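Input/output pair, single chain:
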Amino acid sequence: MTNDHSMSVEDLPKEAVVAYARLLRRAAVDDPAENNRASLLQDVCAFLHDATGADVGIVYAAAMDTALRAIGASDDVTAALPVDEVSAWLDRVDAPSPGHVGRWRVHAVPMGDASRPVGALLIASVEEVPTAMLKATLDLCRATLRRLTVHPARDRVARSLRGERDLLARIFETSPVAITVLDTQGNIKRANARAEEVLGLMPSDLQKRSYDDPGWKHTTLEGDPLPDAAQPFRMVKETNAPVYDVRHGIEWPDGHRRVLSINGAPLQAADGSLTGAVFVVEDVTDEYQRRRTAQERQSKVRGLYEAMSRLLQVGSFESVADRMLSLIEDTMGYEISAIRLRIDGVLRPTCVTQGVINTMSQPRPDYPVDGDSIVARAYRQGQTLSFADVREAGDQVDRGRVRSAAYIPIGPFGTISVSTTEPGGVDAFDVQLIEILARNAETVMRRLADEAELREARDVAEEASRLKSAMLANMSHEVRTPLTSILGFAEVIEKETAEESTRVFARRVRVGSLRLRDTLDSVLHLSRLEAEALTPATEPVKVLQELRDTCDELAPLAEENGVTLSLDVLASNTTCETDPFAVQRILRNVIGNAIKFTPSGGSVEVTIAGGDGGVVVEVTDTGIGMSEAFQRRMFDAFTQESEGIRREHEGSGLGLAIVRKLLDLIHGQIEVESTPGLGTRMSIYLPDELQMTSGPSVKVLLASETSDEREDAATD
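Output:
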């Protein structure tokens, strides 16, 4: 092969000239879609074949090392290789083999830069290709293939970097959040459009500011000056680390306060040194205000419920008004407030805050309930009247500097008024809380009114009781004195006279006088029991002895009525600590009633036994019994089953009423079972040491009820 590297186009066939032109044009094209390795190699093969008539095979080997080991490494290589070696190499690189048998001449060109080889272009021909033509062709192919292998990769990287920069720029400018970039001194170097909105400054003004510019007037969320150490830029610079959701306040040039949430990160050089910082700034003023409003409302609600419990403890209307006003002023923040109560047909200012005195131009007047004032209208309508600007209310009342106001009725008792000097300053939520407060105050005031009525009724009842006691005392004195004389004279006449008819009359006078005296004693005794004027004595009472004395006392009555009276003792120890008078009266009334309501020929059986912590006395008769209807009211005073002019038995109807009161006094119990026409059983439990017993003092077991269905029937 010669060393001539020149090539003349005129020496080429026409077809080769056309093919070479295609190679030249391809070398100038930078579009990978039109210029690719496969089409290039086809054009090279066509050119060499047309130019030389040689049988040419072209291989582009991705495995550069394999190709160079086969033919030797140099910039341009021309070597004659045996056919078997070429065929073997072509097999190794998985390349198509030219279909010619003989010795091949192989020409190779390394592809890519010296530091970054990417393959080789191999041309195998049977006949020798002119050196100049081969050199020019290979140079052209190498240049083109470099563009296809090296430059496109570099261009792709460059285009990718440009795309990323453009994307970042678009994101920066169109971001819905504010982004600022600061240098190492904290000066703003760049800010997007949203940052201008959030920070309230034009771009030219932003470029002149630093993070600690006094014009920002940085404050904490509580309104105190923000320390430099708490500045987000200072935190990033000191730690060289990101910060998250740092919140503080700034002031716009127009004076509006804004609350910002700031996230920031350091910008670092390749060696890790700080080159600046980038911050994402979000205006959270509305969120902060909502959260603060919610917290304030929660505080007000807590204060409201605490006030509810305090309201229940007050004892006068004035105290209720004072408690409500303190809550409205201290907890809800309304310094111009007043509470009016209805007194003698007018709504009178009972409690007012100092703000009312300082703001109003004159002392607040009384408003007639039927007048035209806003206060009177709210009271009469029973609903709140609110005004964003109270001057539009049209009631011609001078309220000084007050602008916004709300008037809330307290039921029939009065009104609450809250005011501010700012139009629309009375919050609707606060009005709802005050309405709840007003309803609870109304409940408390109703209770106080009811208690006042009860106290008045109690006073009237106590006065009536005093008069009754005085009347009974007078009656006791005025009636007992002549009654004692009547009894004495009747007994004398009955004993001294010999005439039978006179003795009969004297005996009737004596018996009637005794009944009158017993009735009088019962009335006086019941009166003292109802007035709780009796205090039980506590001393050892031998119940068995009291029971024997009672039976002995009532034996003549039983004999007179033809009734058998018996006593059965079932216990040896029947002593208990209780009131002896109560025991005597209970036993006398119960046994006396049994004898009175048992027909002639019947019997009354009395038994005494020990009980659980006391003594049990049971009185069983075969008397007339009681209906279920009467059993439910048998312990009411002045009650008998047969009443009025048809009454069959004598008596005042006070005996069992007194029994019940005495049992209540000593904490005893009585259980009653009765059947009309068959008789009655009464079991009396007398506790030891006045011990409290469970359940009511009276238990009536009705015959119509089963043992599982019987209920306690106590009549108050």
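The radius of gyration is 60 Å. The chain is about 45% helix and 20% strand.
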